[in-house]
Each structure stands twice: as C-alpha cells, then as structure tokens.
Amino acid sequence: MNAYQLLEALGEIDDRHLADVKPVSFVRREGRLKRGWLLLAAVIAALALCGFAAYRLAVSDLWLQNPSQNPIETVQSALQNQLEKEYALELTVEQIEIDQEETARAVKRYRGSELAQSLGWTDQYLAEHFVAVRAEYLAVYDHTKTFLDDGRVCQYFYLTRDPKSGQWTIWDNRTTAQSPPPED
Questions:
Q1: What is the biggest distance separating any 2 CA atoms in the chain, rounded to whole angstroms?
Q2: For residue 85, which of 137, 141, 151, 150 has the smallest C-alpha distance?
C-alpha cells in the first residue's frame, strides 16, 4: 500500500468512528502526561533542595558552638567542637583574640545596610552587640572525608550578642589565610 492509497482509505473512514475514539484516549494520555511532568518537576525540586542542603553543609560547614557571655569562649568552643566532626583529625588553637579594627570595619560595612535592616540590627545594636574575633589554628583533616585543606588557618568569626541573655553566638566567619603545616 502506497501513501496515496493510505490517504484515500483514511478519507473513507466515517468521522463518527473517530469522534467516539479520539477524545477518550486523548484525555487519558494528556492526564498521564501532566502527572508525569508534575512528578518530574517534584523530583527535580527535591534534588535541588537536597543538593543545596549538601552544599550548605559541605561548603559553609556550620559551626557547633556553645554560646557564652564571653565571645572568645564561644569561638574556643566552636573550634574544639570541630574535633567532633568525622573529618577532623587534629586542631590546635594558637591564638584567639577580639580584633577591634576588624570589628570597626565590619560594623561600618553593615551599618545602614539592607542586611542589617532585615536582621533588625540598628546602629546602636551593632555598636554594642557585634564583635569580630580573630582565631589562628592548625588543622589536619582526613581527605577521604572532606575537601578542606590542612594547614595554618587565620579566621575571623563575627559574633552577635543577644541583648536579653548576654550570650554571644557566631553569626558568620571568614578565612583570611591558610598555609601548609610546618615540616617535622
């Protein structure tokens, strides 16, 4: 049968037969197609959320901390708690101190910003309840479990104080320098 004969045969089919069949099968396929796309969209959204959570945990590596009345003690607890993570083999704290210059720079950076406004940080709050703590430490990691580099780390921890409880907590941190561990 060639194409011409096929077209001629199709033209002879009574339209009432097509009207009976087409809507039922078309609606069912369309419904399955919509459900398929919805399922695919849900799977993509779930993977994206899981990926973001994994990225957040792996890259930012949330600090386990014990809030304290003293910001240096809060940072000390965060560094000590690093050893509880499965990838940390060794962590030796060399120095922790409040850095007044970095505190002033950070307060100036945040003062009047959209971020400060969204967090409810007034200029007065920043002046009284925000501090930068500089920590230097030597870290050794299990590289089968993390991508973090070993070495000497100089890191700033930015802490905020709850005005009611007086407890300092780490709000953010930034690594400034890292070098390989000393040779034995």
A1: 93
A2: 141
> Tokens in use for 84?
């509880």
Report d(CA 75, CA 55) in Å as an integer.
Answer: 23
d(CA 156, CA 169) in angstroms, rounded, equals 13
pLDDT band at 177 (very low <50, low <70, confident <90, very high): low
Encoded tokens for 119:
């967090």
pLDDT value for 34: 73
Say how many CA atoms lie within 13 Å of 25 toward its Cβ.
Answer: 5
State pLDDT tens for residues 6-58: 667 767 666 655 555 555 444 455 566 677 777 777 777 777 666 555 444 44
**What are the strands of the beta sheet with 168-179, ordered from one edge?**
88-98, 130-141, 151-161, 168-179
What is the Cα–Cα distance from 47 to 184, expressed in whole angstroms? 45
CA distance 61 to 80: 14
Both structure tokens of 57: 């945990």
Q: How far is CA 73 from CA 87, 98, 167, in A?
A: 23, 11, 11
Closest CA to 177 of 138, 130, 131: 138
The total of other beta-carbon atoms located within 10 Å of residue 58's CB is 11
pTM over cut 0.70: no
